[in-house]
Amino acid sequence: MKNSYTVIHLGGSIVVPHISDQGGMNIPFLKKFRVFLQKELKKGRRFLIVIGGGKTARAYQKSASKVVKIKDYDLDWIGIHATRLNAHLLRTIFEKEAYPVVIDHDPEQEEVQMLKSSNKKLFFASGWRPGWSTDYIAVELARKFGVQEVIIAKDTPFVYDKDPGKYADAKPMHALSWKEYKKFVPKTWSPGLSSPVDPVATRLAEKVGITAKILQGTNLHNFQKAIQGKSFEGTTIS
After folding, report:
1. pTM over 0.85
2. CA angle, 45 as apex, 221 and 24 as ends, to 5°?
3. 3-state secondary structure of 49
4. Where are the alpha helices (DSSP H) in the chain?
């Protein structure tokens, strides 16, 4: 277990579910998540956690767009910096346990080897560059660290056959192939796109043979089952 990693994409909407005078952070979740991860780290598990931008990214993107017409490239950079802020928030909360530097760029193999040899068991990563979603980065880090699956923890418990926010009869799907899943998401990536696994990550995961476990990130008991390789409530895409 010492040399294995659990790669998690933690949806920004869980960390920052809304914008308010208090910042909009989900403090109760962060407190529980800290205790939860500390227990898992004591068992010898190692984690690579990629953080999304959440409402912070969308609020800044929307605000800029109301002033002038913004290119997708610049909207992407706003989102990337939001993920960096969220990643630093998490790294600060786990100051004693986490590697001291957020992985904010695509690491070369030498750097990957250096991170693997670190005595730290917890690493946080943010967005890297325009056109690369944090979903994609989670899959790419899994590939570089030799991990065969990623856990996609967001604010919905399943992949549905249609948007559950719009359709009351939306049905959850428990197991899909990547080929089947591609029917339910747009073919192209755009800044701020919200989907269980976005198109760029989907293509890479299918190409390199990585499995994704989609689950509701706030259900930590269920989260633990997925980490331990047990049957969990959610959707598996492979």
Report:
1. yes
2. 55
3. strand
4. 12-15, 27-42, 54-67, 72-93, 109-116, 134-144, 178-181, 199-208, 220-227
Which pLDDT value is given to residue 186?
74
* Torsion, CA 219, CA 225, CA 226, CA 228, rounded to 10: 140
Q: Which two tokens stand for residue 110?
A: 């030498």
Please give the structure tokens belonging to residue 209: 């043979």
Q: Which two tokens stand for residue 52?
A: 């999304």
Identify the structural domains of the chain with CATH numbers, from first to last: 6-237 (3.40.1160.10)
* Distance from C-alpha of 6 to C-alpha of 215, rounded to nearest angstrom: 15
**H-helix or E-strand containing 237?**
strand 235-237
Q: What would the DSSP string read from start to end of 143-208?
A: HHTT-SEEEEEESSSSEESS-TTT-TT--EESEE-HHHHGGGS-SS--TT---SS-HHHHHHHHHH
Count Cβ atoms below 10 Å from residue 228 Cβ, excluding itself. 12
Q: How far apart are CA 33 and CA 132, in angstroms?
A: 26
199-208 and 134-144 are packed helices; what angle lies between their axes, rounded to 10 degrees? 20
Kindly report, residue by residue over 207-233, the tens digit of the pLDDT.
999 999 999 999 999 999 999 999 999
CA distance 49 to 96: 16
